[in-house]
Amino acid sequence: MNKKTLLVIIGVLVIGVIGVIGGVYLMTRPNDELNNSSTEQDTLPNQQEDNNSEKKNDDNNSNQKIAIIYFSATGTTKNVAEYIKNTTNGDLIEIIPKEKYTDSDLNYGNNNSRANKEQNDSKARPEISNNINTDSYDFIFLGYPIWWGDVPKIILTFLDSNNLDGKTIIPFCTSGSTGISGSLNTLKKYNKDINWIDGKRFSSSTTQNEISSWVNGLGF
């Protein structure tokens, strides 16, 4: 047997041995290793489903509409309402009385002034000149000044004029010193079917940063 033939035989034997070893390895290979590639592929749909779920939740949050509805006789509550709009990007809606309040109407030292008469009359419901549609809103910030420790009666007119049952309303008020608790109790008793969130009182010196901090603390 010449040298060339011997090399060919040796080569064939080496290839055969390699093939046998490879076959044995595949037969004894761990199942988790064999299934590794298919397992990675199987997890992709689940990951995609989780991503879609997160996106759906984000879409739901972004679709929730916010309104900032307020009554302001002197402009103080209006300023706070505008700060809230800047933070939430909600719709700003003013409650406009049919008969505008004058300085003499707001003279609390005069028992015969319009504001005093309204606040002392449980049946008083001052008319609102503009039509306010709240149907499309999920959250409503409701703003007003404190009059005699309570909500102005025109706020009750607003509640009477709209079906707000089941909606979430966050009151906010402005005053020199009186807190919001008295007016909040009035609102909660007036309509118990509204989801009232405890609100906050602000002064005329309240800043945009203070409003933003409060609103963001509510989760908006």
Derived from helix and strand composition plus strand pairing, the structural class reads alpha/beta
**Strand-residue fraction?**
5-15%
Q: What is the strand tally? A: 6
CATH superfamily of the domain at 65-217: Flavodoxin domain
Helix proportion: 40-55%
Low-confidence stretches: 20-61
Number of helices: 8
CATH fold field value of the domain at 65-217: Rossmann fold
For the CA atoms, what is the radius of gyration? 35 Å
Report the average pLDDT across residues: 82
Q: What is the molecular shape?
A: globular
CATH class of the domain at 65-217: Alpha Beta
Strand count, sense and barrel status of the largest sheet are: 6 strands, parallel
User: What distance lies between the first and last C-alpha atoms, to the nearest angstrom?
Assistant: 91 Å
The CATH architecture of the domain at 65-217: 3-Layer(aba) Sandwich
Could you state the order of secondary-structure elements as H and E?
A: HHHEHEHEHEHEEH
